[in-house]
Design brief:
Number of helices: 12
Helix content: 40-55%
Bound molecules: S-adenosylmethionine
Strand content: 15-25%
Strand order of the largest sheet: 4-3-2-5-6-9-7
Order of helices and strands: HEHEHEHEHEHEHHEEEHHHH
């Protein structure tokens, strides 16, 4: 904590709320995050939102290489200072939302682990972008608001379960690996957080047309309280008889709601809808 404060003072740096600059200072916690991410000396890590470099340093100690993205160019001197002992770190000063995934993956050059502690308004878009389109990602370890963590790791038929959970389960699985109280951040935010680990299973549902599955998922959650049969009729303009025939072919009960279906159920349902 004192170290962070003195570095920020030394560089005359003032935290910017709009960039969600709540920094971590607890070295034990930082090491735990790296540990949970399963980073080893063979790994390349993509860190999004480096801040004052506390997590970046902890990652650099363990990883083969760290590529970090940071939107705030005012952090250049701070990061140069904090990371001066590491020759395996490269920081790109850019808004991650403005860099194409192709460009990011080209820079990483192969498989990588994504680690991010970001402002909460961009965490979900980032997770979905990498889940849906990243080619070489092995896993993600992301700090999110505690309630979001439980949503991401929820099971079907629970009230937390939704389209984003299915999206994750189409490529792997998520678990909450660490709770992080608000007091661990400087300045202290008004919510508690948790670390979610998403493991990507290579070739899960290989050969499946994910665009079709995502359309069905969107349809199923378009009116969450409605039964799936009604959402199918609305979205695809099926007659009730046709929608019921589809559910039966997909081994689903006629009264199910979207929230009851596993990723596997969605895959089968989309095969029935799009391939007959
Ligand atoms: N990783 C540091 C830590 O754990 O202490 C900083 C975390 S802080 C919550 C989030 C960081 O993400 C800030 O440094 C902020 O400037 C940066 N950031 C915010 N939006 C970003 C974006 N779109 N692209 C890249 N970095 C971003």
């Amino acid at each position: 904590m004192e170290k962070l404060k003195s570095i920020l003072i030394k560089h005359n740096f003032s935290l910017k709320k709009a960039f969600g600059q709540n920094f971590l200072t607890d070295t034990e916690l930082l090491d735990q995050i790296v540990e949970k991410a399963g980073v080893s000396s063979n790994d390349t890590v993509l860190e999004i939102g480096c801040g004052a470099g506390a997590l970046t340093s902890a990652l650099a100690k363990r990883a083969k290489r760290v590529v970090g993205y940071e939107i705030d160019t005012r952090l250049k001197p701070v990061l140069n200072d904090v990371l001066c002992d590491y020759n395996n770190v490269e920081i790109v000063f850019n808004d991650i939302m403005k860099v194409s995934l192709d460009e990011i993956e080209k820079k990483l050059g192969g498989e990588y682990i994504l680690v991010a502690n970001l402002p909460y308004y961009i965490t979900t878009p980032i997770i979905m972008r990498f889940i849906e389109n990243a080619q070489n990602i092995k896993g993600m370890v992301i700090m999110v608001q505690e309630e979001v963590a439980y949503r991401l790791a929820s099971k079907n038929s629970s009230s937390d379960y939704g389209a984003i959970t299915v999206g994750i389960n189409l490529r792997g699985s998520a678990e909450v690996v660490l709770k992080v109280g608000r007091e661990k951040f400087t300045p202290i935010p008004n919510v508690d957080s948790a670390i979610v680990k998403i493991t990507i299973e290579k070739d899960k549902f290989k050969g499946v047309d994910f665009n079709n599955v995502r359309n069905v998922v969107r349809c199923a959650f378009s009116s969450r309280r409605k039964m799936l049969v009604n959402n199918l009729m609305n979205t695809y303009k099926f007659s009730r008889a046709k929608a019921e025939e589809i559910l039966t072919k997909a081994n689903l009960d006629l009264t199910v709601r979207g929230e009851n279906l596993s990723a596997q159920d969605f895959v089968l349902l989309s095969e029935v809808i799009y391939k007959g």
